[in-house]
Amino acid sequence: MTKQSKIIATEAQFPLAKLTLSPMNARQDVSLDDVTELAESIWAAGLIQSIAGLATDTGGVEIVAGGRRLRALNHLNDAHPDLASPMVMLAPDRETAEAWATWRMWRGVICTPPPSRAPLP
After folding, report:
1. Which of 44, 47, 87, 119 has a Cα-to-Cα distance from 80 of 20 to 30 A?
2. How far is CA 27 from CA 98, 110, 121, in A?
3. ParB-like N-terminal domain: which residues (predicted)?
4. Which pLDDT tens digit goes with each residue over 35-52?
């Protein structure tokens, strides 16, 4: 893909029940410990990076980027229903969704997250 063009994406809130993990998502297998740790971080600091997906014909969204965040939000859902309708960046088409799903692998970013840093004094 050498041609560059502006991607027009929209952002909308969806209930967690309408969000599913896309087969395009690079993180198909995530440990419960990872999900729990991320859920604690989201609860403490908020959802800093949005999740991204492709709308389905049935009114749902398949999440192509942010699979761990989706799992963490589902983990928090019972205790914190205020997080039950996150904002989702919607790809305008399948080609864009595929690019969003694979850019992390292309950059070699799919790896174990770095250890937590000590707070600054």
Report:
1. 119
2. 14, 8, 34
3. 12-106
4. 999 999 999 998 888 899
Distances (CA, A) of 11 to 51, 76, 88, 109, 120: 10, 22, 5, 24, 34
CA–CA gap between residue 42 and residue 7 (Å, rounded): 28
Contact 84, 2 (CB under 8 A): no
The pTM for the full model equals 0.77
The total of other beta-carbon atoms located within 10 Å of residue 83's CB is 19
Which residues fall within 8 angstroms of residue 89, CB to CB, at 6 or more apart?
9, 10, 11, 50, 51, 52, 53
- What pLDDT is recorded for position 105? 54
